[in-house]
Amino acid sequence: MAERSTAAVDVADNGGDEPPTAKADAATTDGTAQTQDSEGAGPQDAEGGRDSSDTVPASPDLHSGHKLARRYRLEECVTRLDGFSSWRAVDEKLRRAVGVHLLPADHPRARSVLAAARSSALLGDPRFVQVLDAVEEDDLVYVVHEWLPDATELTALLAAGPFEAHDAYQLVSQISQAMAAAHREGLAHLRLTPGAVLRSSTGQYRIRGLAVNAALRGITADQPLRTDTEAIGALLYAALTRRWPYESDAYGLTGLPKDLGLIPPDQVRAGVHRGLSELAMRALANDGATASRQEQPCTTPDELAKAVAAMPRILPPEPTFTAPPEYQRTTYQQGTYGRPSVRPTSATQPVIAAPPPPLQSRTGRVLKWAVSALLIAALGLGSWQLAETVLNRDNDSGEPAPTQTAEDGADDKVPADLKDLRIVDAEEFTPSGSGIQQQDVPNTIDGKSDTAWVTPRYVGYANFGNLANRKQGSGIIVDLGSAQDVSGIDIKMYRGQQKAEVLAADESASQPTSLSDFPHRLTNLETTGSTVHKTLDEPVRTRYVLVRIAELPPDGSSGFRGGIAEISVLG
Fold first, then answer.
1. Residue 387 pLDDT
2. Of 172, 184, 62, 139, whose CA–CA distance to 435 is shortest?
3. CA-based torsion, 214, 217, 220, 221: positive or negative
4. Record: fold of 7-146
């Protein structure tokens, strides 16, 4: 792409609801395939717009192999625009791929980019692509961030077609919760496009460019909450219909027909989930766009997240199974195994070898009776010797013979007289007040071992990335509805090698949230296998049971991930 010398030529802001003309950006800087991204093709650029009054210095003339801070080696330039460039690079110290944004120190937006990057880094929320470094050095300003080679950009996902209802539900649920958490910390995105959303191989969504992408392009907004909310609505609309909810085409998506206005997704494509269609309209309601007639518009990500949570949960579609091929008898079952094959004399009359005749003579009958008698005698003798051995052992010990041999670890087996106690609710253990995967909590009590609450991937440290708001780990608190006598637990973990423990609250506790609210230890803090079984010596009377994970197992790369599949409390 040709280098541009001023911000004004990047995109013209028309100041209204109709998105500006799309311009090529190709800004993908965290491991996904390079794509053409439309500048300003949505509400992000309609409010406040881009600062185009300053002359932008030329982007630094760097090349592959250049090293920053004697550590970050530039590999490939993926964007050169508006006086800044974005690169795929290698962190030679930690031997991992990273992304780097570069711009001159005298760039008019250099200060705001540094401030945005440092604020984003302080958030430390794993639902966002993390800023790893923000430096001014040698007349350069550069921002280093994660590179996610296993993630897929939403633009590429939409190219394959519209989402199923469950996938669209997961998208709007995870993105709205993440942006609500960011706004609580005073951070806005302002450029939340399909190119800014990534889906990992585990189905978790990650948002890149929080605050930084807008700062690089000089985008501001008078109503940042509304801007980001409408952007989430546009993403949901696109996921349901594979159409962009404005008249102009953008991000590889066709816009809506002109002069029709904003029509609901279920009128664009047949079979769209009615509740999700209304939710998209509530988020997109703005200057002429009509919200759902039954509900008020959502004006903040937090309102949108609550609206999603209030919906009936949309389950994934049932797996389809292919009917097995018609059963075919083998040659062994047909009675020809081990016999010499006989070549047919003609195509229509195959010759089949006849079996040998049975023993019908007098000698044959005598031989059969003799063999049968020997077998009966051998069985009788063996039974008599076994009985004598058991009786002798009982007499020597003075105790009756046991009917079952105890195995090692028998304490971990659930006694037959215990039963599952009814669990009325479950919630995430969030001692810092911020959740991580709250939408997946019901998976731990749905009776299905193939669904789970799974943590995001944390890089560098097993203790949830060593984040300040994760010092006490995380986990699931189950509510039995009332105080019950708990005699055991039966837990299926998402994966083994997690360091975890099971705790219980006092009988009189009400909605415990901190670790100190669970004084009763049901299991020790230790590394678990794929299951955790425990029968208590004495029942513990409690209403709330906490399964706490303190450290996560490695996920096979440089990260750590864990979770819980199913929780059963026994009484």
1. 59
2. 184
3. negative
4. Phosphorylase Kinase; domain 1 (3.30.200)
SS3 content of the chain, % helix, strand, coil (to 5): 25, 25, 50
Asked if 498 and 551 count as a contact pair (C-beta separation under 8 A), the reply is yes
Residue 529 tokens read as 């296998």
**Residues 268 and 318 sit within 8 Å (Cβ to Cβ):** no
Strand order of the β-sheet with 197-199 is 152-153, 197-199, 205-207
- pTM of the entire structure? 0.53
- CB-based contacts of 84, cutoff 8 Å, min separation 6: 59, 101, 102, 103, 107, 113, 216
- Cα 30 from Cα 78, distance rounded (Å): 10
Looking at the DSSP assignment, which residues form a beta bridge with residue 128?
207
Task: Give pLDDT tens digits for 510-534.
Answer: 888 888 899 999 999 999 988 999 9
What does the DSSP 8-state code read for residue 253? B
Taking only the tens place, the pLDDT of each residue in 429-485 is 988 777 888 888 999 999 888 889 999 888 888 888 888 777 889 999 999 999 999
CATH 3.40.640.10 fits 412-570, yes or no: no
Q: Are 485 and 524 in contact (CB under 8 A)?
A: no
Rounded distance between C-alpha atoms, residue 471 and residue 551, angstroms:
10
Closest residue by Cα to residue 568 from 450, 478, 442: 478
Specify the range with the lowest mean pLDDT, choosing from 193-207, 274-288, 309-323. 309-323
Q: pLDDT exceeding 70 applies to what percent of the chain?
A: 72
Question: Using CA atoms, how far apart are residues 167 and 316, in angstroms rounded to an integer?
Answer: 8
Helices and strands, counts by H and E, the chain: 9, 23
Q: Which two tokens stand for residue 423?
A: 């669990």
Average per-residue pLDDT in the chain?
79
Instruction: Quote the CA–CA distance of 411 and 487 in Å, as a whole number.
Output: 12
Q: How far apart are CA 478 and CA 446, in angstroms?
A: 12
Would you kindly state where each structural domain of the chain is located, as residue ranges?
Answer: 7-146, 152-310, 412-570
Neighbours of 530 (CB within 10 A): 13
Max intra-chain CA distance, the chain:
116
The average pLDDT across 348-372 equals 59
CA nearest neighbour of 60 among 80, 75, 30, 34: 80
Q: Residue 334 has what pLDDT?
A: 44
Each residue's pLDDT tens digit, 313-341: 888 877 665 555 554 544 444 444 444 44
Q: Any idea which fold 152-310 has?
A: Transferase(Phosphotransferase); domain 1 (1.10.510)
